[in-house]
Design brief:
The protein is an all-alpha fold. It contains six helices and no strands.
Length: 155
Amino acid sequence: MLIRLSTLLMCFMLSLPAFAVDKNVSGFSTPELEARYRHLLEELRCVVCQNQNLEDSNAMLAQDLRNEVRDLLEQGNSDEQVMEFLVKRYSEFVLYRPRWQPKTYLLWGGPALFLVLAVLFMLYFIRQQAKPKVEETQLTPEEQAKLATLLEKDD
């Protein structure tokens, strides 16, 4: 009985975070507005959670941002205007996919740059391993005499 009760209690406790996110998107005047709202929530990052979009975040700030997005859409703002408003308030970090601009070139091109550098390093390393490692050394007079006697025995 105690195991069943503890299992039930554990299941209840694990389900609590699911209730924290406000998934109630009713109240939009049109289905198109609701679709735009959903799309924006996927494109915007929670500035507290850092690796979650607004739709998935449980943070209180994320709830406030969802309400702000809803209000801006209801006021007739376009998606771009909503995103620009949030960028002005929270910086480019609020965008899940940063814009293509000079300060983000390294962010967008960095993975390709690292890939090219890794391939070049690998090719260099393989070439270095393939080179024969022959060292030219001079024989000492004793070694030369020993070599000469060994060669005379072979003849």
